[in-house]
């Protein structure tokens, strides 16, 4: 589940002009609406690709069916870069050419979705979790920063840190929903430290020391937010407007999770409208 694809929206495929839009009111929708038209349409095309492959990983049927469809997406991305786009990648032709989007980043997103499709992820080690975050979130960030117009080096660093910040926030926000799917993205090492050497989603979420594991991941996410802000402060406000809005909106979720705590039942954390308006007032004006 990518940070972009986890925004509420109907299932989409990148087959129509600008494909399907993210839900009005989501932080992604708001941030993208403030971009110039060419950047906005490019981001919608990337978003639609992410939604399409995310839907395959989560709801694409039997595992062998999902694997085969993700392989078709790999072939379709290769064909796109070979100058033979199929209908469902047609919306990406212009963005790839105009913004220099990299084939390997699209393929990394598919590889991340394959990690979910191949087996239910349960307590990955920290290196595997970081690889997952890189593929499903930071790879999307690498595509995005090129569209936003950031310079190469700070752009790639921003994608690294902000992608991980957003994805770790997703993981912490969605632990109950993921458990219902048989998934547990909390890393193995801190779970082992509280006595869960072979955790299941149910045993982890019921453990009285769950909060210790989540607090460690919260601190890791916060460190990535801090690094992201340091990078964005050194770049132009115009090029960083969209990621600043996304980062600030998602950080509200992280703050809300820290305040709520981890005792069951866990109410879903969602930023209030006034708080989101405050984000826009601070970051939308260049």
TrEMBL record:
Gene3D superfamilies on file: Farnesyl Diphosphate Synthase
InterPro entries: Isoprenoid_synthase_dom_sf, SQ_synth_HpnD-like, Squ/phyt_synthse, Squalene/phytoene_synthase_CS, Trans_IPPS_bact-type, Trans_IPPS_HH
EC number assigned by the record: 2.5.1.103
Keywords: Transferase
Domain of life: Bacteria
Alphabetical list of PROSITE patterns matching this protein: SQUALEN_PHYTOEN_SYN_1, SQUALEN_PHYTOEN_SYN_2
CDD domains in the cross-refs: Trans_IPPS_HH
Alphabetized GO MF terms: transferase activity
Family annotation (Pfam families): SQS_PSY
Entry coiled-coil feature ranges: none
Protein name: Presqualene diphosphate synthase HpnD
Annotated gene: hpnD
């Amino acid at each position: 589940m990518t940070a972009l694809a986890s925004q509420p929206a109907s299932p989409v495929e990148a087959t129509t002009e600008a494909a399907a839009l993210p839900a009005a009111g989501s932080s992604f929708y708001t941030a993208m609406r403030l971009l110039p038209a060419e950047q906005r349409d490019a981001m919608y095309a990337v978003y639609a690709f992410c939604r399409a492959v995310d839907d395959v990983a989560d709801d694409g049927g039997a595992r062998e069916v999902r694997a085969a469809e993700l392989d078709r997406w790999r072939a379709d991305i290769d064909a796109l870069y070979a100058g033979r786009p199929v209908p469902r990648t047609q919306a990406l032709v212009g963005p790839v050419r105009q913004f220099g989007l990299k084939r390997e980043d699209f393929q990394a997103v598919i590889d991340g979705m394959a990690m979910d499709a191949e087996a239910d992820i349960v307590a990955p080690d920290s290196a595997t979790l970081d690889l997952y975050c890189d593929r499903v979130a930071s790879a999307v960030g690498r595509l995005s920063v090129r569209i936003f117009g950031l310079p190469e080096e700070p752009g790639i660093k921003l994608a690294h840190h902000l992608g991980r910040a957003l994805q770790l926030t997703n993981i912490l926000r969605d632990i109950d929903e993921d458990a219902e799917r048989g998934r547990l993205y909390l890393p193995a090492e801190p779970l082992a430290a509280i006595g869960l050497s072979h955790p299941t989603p149910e045993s982890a979420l019921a453990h009285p020391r769950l909060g210790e594991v989540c607090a460690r991941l919260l601190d890791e996410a916060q460190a990535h937010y801090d690094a992201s802000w340091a990078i964005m402060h050194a770049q132009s406000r115009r090029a960083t407007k969209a990621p600043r809005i996304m980062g600030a909106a998602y950080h509200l979720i992280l703050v809300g999770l820290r305040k709520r705590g981890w005792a069951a039942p866990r109410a879903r954390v969602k930023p209030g409208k006034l708080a989101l308006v405050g984000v826009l007032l601070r970051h939308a004006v260049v």
